[in-house]
Structure formats: structure tokens, C-alpha cells
């Protein structure tokens, strides 16, 4: 299977306001309900008091965050940037009181464009749109460090650091509006004991109607995450970073029995609207 390569000019056709006006959407398309992935909702709890989410989910101080382990009010909000969706769509929340949940390990290896020798098995998880939450197995296909909303137009490309997932046919499972802040985990897994790779940011639709999903790559923001948590005087919690991404040879083994599609890039076409998965 060839990694997905779609570098043609892109158009950001839907704003956050328009996506919000569309109302609550269905759960992950092709997802399965589960009682697992308890740390995941419209944000992913990584330690007792700290949650990673997408900036456009728009948590504020005093907001209530809840997941399968409990709920707590948000005491502090830290955005990586203020440029607006889709740029650097990552926010840290500090909860006023700890939620007693297992800590999650974060992937510390930065995956760069054109470095995936083969797709990597991953699992999408969400808690906002599916009761009690939903998940689905798919493949990490590509890395988009930037998203150019108007192609060669006057607007500069936005830094996104997106991990792009899709099945062999660019079909299910994929995220929908309402799934933002969910998590991307390494491997085809059925609970959150695996490594967290990314935070759900956007739904991508190609010009032939096929779908993929975009997740903010956490390893790209490792220094900021560590510095932000260390600078907050309320606690001494720190993120746990590991290196779990398979080597290229192991990636190839994961593809045993998967049909090879040499024309994947041509069949996928160009990405058209990218919608915040809020």
C-alpha cells in the first residue's frame, strides 16, 4: 500500500462557525461503541490534572471537563498559538481537581513527511458523539506539516503538524464534526493502554467524496507541553514520553494480508474541504 500523498493546493471551505451551526453530528463513521478509552472525550486526560484537546473545542476557565473516570472544572487553559483553526490546533487544560484515571504515554518520535515506508496501524477514539465512547481501527498514512487554505493565493500556509489516517479505500472509520479533542492511539487496540499519538483536529474530504481524518501530532509539540506543565505551580505532574513507533521493517510486517493499491494517490484525488471535527 502506498502512503497517501496529496500535496495539491487546498481550500478551507468551512469555518468553525459554519461547522458549529450544522449541529451535533454522528459518531465516528464506522466506529464501534465501547466502555474502554475512559480518558477520552472532547479532550484526552494524560495525567491526573492535565488534559490535551484541540484549541477550536474552545474550553475556557470554569468549563466542565468529563470523561469515563469522572469530571472536574477547568482551572487553567494554555493554547499553543492564537492563529485560529487549523493552525497549531492544540491546547492544554489543567483541571482544578484531579480525576483518578490511568496516565497515558505520549509518543515522542516526530514523524516527518515522506518518511513512512508503509502505513502504521492506529486506532481512532472519541467520547463526544458516541455513547459511552467509540473507536475504530485504521492506518496512519501521511504527515501534513502545513495546510494551505488558498493554494498559491495570498494567505500563507497554516502550520498544522497533522497525522493523516485513512483505510486502503479512504473509507471508514473516519471522524465527523463533534469528534474533536479525541485521541489517536498506536496499534489496532481496544483500550487506551497503548501510546497516544495525536489529538483529533479535522475531517478531510477529497474531491471524489472519499474521507480521511487529521490529528495534531503531539511529538511536534513536546517541548511546549513539557514547559507549560512545568511552569504551572499548581502541581508537579509531567507528561510521560516514550518511543513506540515501529521501525520500517516492523511497519511492513503490519501490512501482511492487506491488499496493495498502487494507484492509491490517483484514486484519492485532491483534498477539498477540511472541517474542524468539533
TrEMBL record:
Residues 1-27 form the signal peptide. Keywords: Hydrolase, Protease, Signal. SUPFAM superfamilies: Trypsin-like serine proteases (SSF50494). GO terms for molecular function: serine-type endopeptidase activity. This is Trypsin-like serine protease. Pfam families: Trypsin (PF00089). GO terms for biological process: proteolysis. Residues 39-225 form the Peptidase S1 domain. Its EC number is 3.4.21.-.
